[in-house]
Amino acid sequence: MLINDKEFGEVIVRKSPLSRNIKFSVSTSGRLQMSVPKFTSEFLAKRFLNANRKMIREKLPVKDPNSQRSRDYQKKLLMKKAKEYLPYRLEYYAKLYGYKYDKCRLTHANTRWGSCSSNRTISLNIGLMKVPEPLRDYVILHELAHLNHMDHSKAFWAEVGSHDKNYKLHEKRIKMFNPGV
Ligand SMILES: [Zn+2]
Q: Which residues contact 177 (CB under 8 A, 6 or more apart)?
């Protein structure tokens, strides 16, 4: 039996011929689990759940059943923010320093902040909306410099440095953030 509970989400109710009273535990998937005597009705199980909310909250921290949903929602919000900002910021710096790129793509890869492909597409991670502005700008300038240098050569870094004096610090700092959403 499954109970859909407002606070705990889906609660798994297992009827056990051996159990004489109701026991609570947390399943490996993070859902609340109740083991109840064989003839317990749904009504009774719900009533017991209601009576023990406080104890469950304190003793069995149940993972938020909505966390996946809330992560998806966060991602959507971040994508919206990113769409309204990153392409314009990229365009701004490209114009300022005379770079020509073909396309701006927004990504949500877990491992990288940005990339620049040989067909001059610049990809920027929407997670950039979560880092301080100087770091965000640094990533944009880094990818723009790749339009002229497809490597991390001395010439590449000199070009990045000509637009961002603190690029070394920014390169170090951005590593302290996680690009994953
Ligand atoms: Zn690079």
A: 127, 130, 131, 135
What fold characterizes domain 75-174? Zincin-like (3.30.2010)
User: In the block, which residue shows the tokens 């396309």?
Assistant: 103
Q: What is the side-by-side order of every strand in the sheet holding 23-26?
A: 2-5, 9-16, 32-37, 23-26
List the domain boundaries for the chain: 2-65, 75-174
pLDDT digits (tens, 9 = 90+) for 27-74: 877 788 999 998 899 999 999 999 999 888 887 776 665 666 667 778
pLDDT tens string 117-129: 999 999 999 999 9
Is this model's pTM higher than 0.90 or not? no
Distance 140 CA to ligand 1 centre (A): 10
pLDDT of residue 10: 83
CA–centroid distance, residue 94 to ligand 1 (Å): 16
Count the alpha carbons within 13 Å of 154 in the hemisphere toward its beta carbon.
Answer: 0
Q: Report the C-alpha gap between 119 and 90 in whole angstroms.
A: 16
CA of 85 to the centre of ligand 1 (A): 21
